[in-house]
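Need tokens for this chain, all 601 residues.
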Amino acid sequence: MNLSSPHTFHIPVMGLAYTIDTPIKVAKYGITSVVSIIEDYLVEQMREVICRNEKIKYVKIQSTERDFRANRITAYLNLIQDIVDKQIEEIRSEDFDTGKTIVQYFDMLSDNSPLKALYNKMLTSKYPEKEKLQKELRSLITAGKIDVNIMTKLDKTNYDNEGNELPQQFSDALAALRGYANSKIKSSIVFSAGLNPRLFSYCETFEDFYPNLKGIINKKIILKVSDYRSALIQGKYLAKKGLWVSEFRVESGINCGGHVFISNGIPLGPILEDFKNKRDELHHELFVECENALKASKRNPFIDKPELKITAQGGIGTSEENTFLIDYYNLDSTGWGSPFLLVPEATNVDVETLNKLKSAKKDDYYLSHSSPLGVPFSNFRNSSSEEQRKMRIAKKRPGSPCYKKFLSMNKEFTDKPICTASREYQNLKIKQLKVEIKDEKVLTREIEKVIEKDCLCEGLGASALLKNETKLSHNLSAVTICPGPNLAYFSDTFSLKQMVDHIYGRLNILNNLNRPNLFVNELQLYFDYLKTEIEDQYNTITEKKLEYFKTFRANLINGIDYYEQLIPKIKQNNSDLKNNVRQQLNDLKNSLNLLPQLKTN
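Here are the structure tokens for all 601 residues:
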């Protein structure tokens, strides 16, 4: 019985704080979740909160220490691991009585789980067989993994108190990686947002990323990717260093929360089809490359060929969609993110924001340009951070004070990088624009682009501090929250059990909005994005952008053709539903054909 993962879903990282302590809440039920570790100030604050709640002595790691970033992360992860270990030990000692955590553990499992079958057998057995089965069940209880995330683009250089540049190993991403590598946790690190050569190379300095004498990797690597080509390139880059990628986590290019890395219009289905058809080839090619590298460096070899998982996430909303993705594309797991924002037992959302999400309308979720990274960002119109941003503009003081500087990457006006959401940058940029642009309409439009940028360092962490009633960072209470558009179809708060039951088809918690199929929903989002981009640039389009738009539209049409062929394979007895999907696909194709003919001036 393979119990390396009791559940067939995981909870992806959400923001800086929304899942920062989720393992303490869900790992005891066998559910894997992902913690963001890049923001060491927030990590340290949460360590203090957890120590207080668990009555554990807390000793602050001061920012004056030489390697404080890494040390904070190590201490935090070790604390979480100790708590989860204690929880599992306590669960194994419980009687199988109604209301006990051990009963909840098995109740939450999928009805198709072999472990659930064994549990059901125990329930109907008589002593002494029942007692024997209970002992076996206790031994099979495993915690969900405490995985961590580093967004590879968040890797600014840091400076000492005298303003001197620190060596590269003290950059944000490398320090976070070191913090994870030095921890006792045996789990996976999720690298998202693409290839960072110095970060990936830094993995080579830690033995836990390589097989031990038993051929086991204590700290595994997961790559969040947008397509097969990206997986192959990044996978080979790491394999040549003897570093094995244990999982490729495929995310929708647009139907997801947080930063949105929009593809050139190729939808999720065809991308997953690519992985399905080339999975064995990918596995073999990376294994040969990795094995040769291990041999060349005289490191421990693999005893057996290591596992390569393929998972997917982004916009999944029903049990039927979840099951289809796993069964048809041979996925090992699926990621359910944004809906868990409505599960107070699992995530950190403050009361005010939670109430806003519960009553939100579909249009309240939108794709913004508010991120200083210059990457589209899933945003929520009613957040207190949006209110604060507009209030600052109304007071003629656009921009944010910049304390943490995690997104300080712009050197347009300064020698040291600053953040484009900072008050300093926005004031300088607006002054420049007023000198250079005489057309009032054009000037207004360009200024709007500047002042749309908002502080994410503070906003994405505030909710956890508010919920845990602890001291706010720099007294900034505005909350940024970045749900995927799929959250529009959930309109209440739910228990962890209710959400898990929904995922496994034992309960339906969707609201009454007419929700298109997952694939159709993503196509519609891509269409809306393309239409907006064309309209915005129609009079000033370049040859390069013209080719991009044409490719984008062609890829969407090809995606529609793919889904039309896929419909008969969807295991759904409701013929009306299949007909609706056909009609929706046809309507989208007609809409694409009605887009304006593109041409350069």
